[in-house]
Amino acid sequence: MDKIEGWLVRVTSLRTMDILDFQEARGIRGGMLEIGVYHGKYFSVLARSAQRGNDRLVGIDTFQWKSERDVVSALSRSEETSEADIELLKCFSHECTASDLIRRLGGPARFISVDGSHDASDVLFDLELSEQVMSPSGVIAVDDFINPVAIGVNEGVHLFFARPRRIVPFAYIDNKLFLAHRSMVDSYRQFIEQAIVRDESEPASQTFRDRNATSRHLVEQRLWGFSVIMCPY
Fold first, then answer.
1. In this structure, how many other beta carbons lie within 10 angstroms of the beta carbon of residue 74?
2. What total of structural domains would you count in the chain?
3. CATH number, domain with residue 179
4. b/e map 122-131, b = 16+ CB within 10 Å
5. From CA 149, how far away is CA 96, in angstroms rounded?
């Protein structure tokens, strides 16, 4: 992943791998989807799990910055992703339907990354589309939440949660907000905190432990009425 162009905080990639490992260990199967592939850095994290589980991975992008060939080439550099079953769709997300994506994925998705247009209306659309595509045991990762240079993402996410939803937040790991179905949110929240506490290598994990020792409010807060584990960098 480090050899692929793009920007991704290391601790966020590690916690994403933890979530994917959690799914694999518990037999949570299904394809994966990313809206906004760019160079393929985060896509490669999903490709690793797709290859391990023999699941389909679909990426949606206009590919105006990097071509589909470049993304495939980047994945081919690692044995952990070179054989992943991927499909890249050169289009805008609003040109896709939930039923078509589910068909391409072979069923509802167990993990979706939302990292396309950062305009509020587009973020709202992508989240509504993802809610329809996601399986009851799945997870959605929303990139650039609480990022001051991508403030449209914040507006779009708030618009999405302006009415009750089947999915709710459970964790904020530097720059990404993670969502899960109401029936699974407690399991994911408990797991991700355990993963952070066990991690002895990342500075953000030590910061989490230090803050938790000072005040629980520094590591767990309420967002739209739900408890969210907070682990910023």
1. 22
2. 1
3. 3.40.50.150
4. bbbbbbebbb
5. 27
Examine residue 2 and state whether it is found in any structural domain, yes or no: no
The answer to whether residues 124 and 160 touch, using CB atoms and an 8 Å cutoff, is: yes
| Nearest-angstrom CA–CA distance, 109 and 98 | 11
Question: CA-CA distance, 57 to 87, in Å (whole number)?
Answer: 6
In tens digits, what is the pLDDT along the chain, a chain of 233 residues? 677 677 788 899 999 999 999 999 999 999 999 999 988 789 999 999 999 999 999 999 999 988 999 999 989 999 999 999 999 999 999 999 999 999 999 999 999 999 999 999 999 999 999 999 999 999 999 999 999 999 999 999 999 999 999 999 999 999 999 999 999 999 999 999 999 999 999 999 999 999 999 999 999 999 999 999 999 87
Tokens of 197: 């506490």
226, 168 in Cβ contact below 8 A? yes
pTM of this structure: 0.96
- The alpha carbon of 219 is separated from its chain's Cα centroid by a whole number of angstroms, namely 20
User: Does residue 3 sit within a domain?
Assistant: no
> Could you list the residue range(s) of the whole structural domain that residue 131 is in?
10-231
Q: Return the half-sphere exposure (C-beta side, CA atoms, 13 A cut-off) of residue 68.
A: 11
**Element housing 103 (H / E):** helix 98-105
